[in-house]
Specification:
The chain has 6 helices and no strands. The protein is an all-alpha fold. The protein starts with 5 loop residues before the first helix and ends in an 18-residue tail after the last helix.
């Protein structure tokens, strides 16, 4: 996984001719997902799980954020318990609709039957 500073690449691309400074719809949705993930952690989670926070903030692609859900789920379980964490993760997973290839989409859990 390549880690870059979004602000630096955005500023470099902004000075190139023919590039728009307006974020694409996909980028805006990724930012929305990222913010939702951080909001679920709350202030306590931001302080207790800096590695999760750092990875969520610096991940640039929807598929990478998708894979971070397990790390986030573990943190949320520790903070709020499994029931609340599952509800929050369901909300987050719903935000990924239309951003991921078909193989990465959520499937119904056999445990929920």
């Amino acid at each position: 996984m390549r880690i870059t500073k979004p602000g630096l690449s955005a500023s470099l691309h902004g000075i190139l001719p023919g590039r728009s400074n307006i974020p694409s719809r996909g980028e805006a949705r990724i930012d929305e997902i990222r913010q939702c993930m951080l909001d679920c952690l709350g202030e306590d989670g931001l302080a207790r799980f800096p590695a999760v926070v750092r990875r969520v903030r610096w991940t640039a692609q929807a598929s990478d954020l998708w894979y971070l859900r397990s790390m986030l789920m573990a943190a949320l379980c520790e903070l709020h318990g499994e029931r609340t964490a599952r509800r929050q993760m369901a909300t987050i997973s719903h935000l990924f609709e239309g951003l991921l290839p078909g193989g990465l989409a959520s499937r119904p859990s056999p445990l929920e039957r």
